[in-house]
Amino acid sequence: MSEDGVTPEVVGQRPLGGNVYTSIKKDILEMRLLAGTPVQEVELASHYGVSRTPVREALRQLLDDGLIERDGRFYRVKELTPSDIRDLYEVRESLEATAVRLCVERADDSLIDRLRKLIAEQNDAFKSADLQRFSALDTAFHLTIAEGAGNALLLQQLTVIHEKSCLTRGREYGAANWIEYSIDEHSRVLSALERRDETIGVAEMIYHIRGVVDLHYGHRRRKA
């Protein structure tokens, strides 16, 4: 990571125009720019080798997306308050529960196999301490369930929700045993999907989602 807090995607490759937005967003979603990290026009323009105009437009879009926020005259990656997290995860809980219910009804066995492989890859990422890869696989697990629901609008909405959920992961992954718990909870959801058990699947997903809110409010329940 460079001194300005930005890591280039590919050395020597400079994005132009609208690609600046894509590049900054990718750095946020892949946890190279964590919540609270300053993002400033001059430094970003210098880093990407463009004028300040496309950077300004990219920051305006990211502000509209809710991925950055103003910090005086400058910007920083958005830090969600406990209230923000509660609001976000109440909506996410409802959508994820619906995704599980529909996935039980509609998904074929090949999608279940994909979920099984994603959990195996999450275990590999955990063992190699690759948090960026683990985060990407975490998102992929949930969005694959949404894909199995066979509802394009639901998948679209959950994609947006998961982009904002990435803003909370810096703290989550720093909590003791959080990643092991996350893998275990994903496995519980998968087990219910394998059995086509809608009731258990929805209950396991809701428990998993509520754990994030519990963490940010200072308490965390765990099954024995």
TrEMBL record:
- Provide the GO MF annotations for this entry: DNA binding; DNA-binding transcription factor activity
**Which keywords are on file for this protein?**
DNA-binding, Transcription, Transcription regulation
Classification via Gene3D superfamilies: GntR ligand-binding domain-like (1.20.120.530), Winged helix-like DNA-binding domain superfamily/Winged helix DNA-binding domain (1.10.10.10)
Q: Which domain of life is it from?
A: Bacteria
Q: Which residues form the HTH gntR-type domain?
A: 14-80
| InterPro entries, A to Z | GntR_C (IPR011711), TF_FadR/GntR_C (IPR008920), Tscrpt_reg_HTH_GntR (IPR000524), WH-like_DNA-bd_sf (IPR036388), WH_DNA-bd_sf (IPR036390)
Protein name as it appears in the record:
GntR family transcriptional regulator
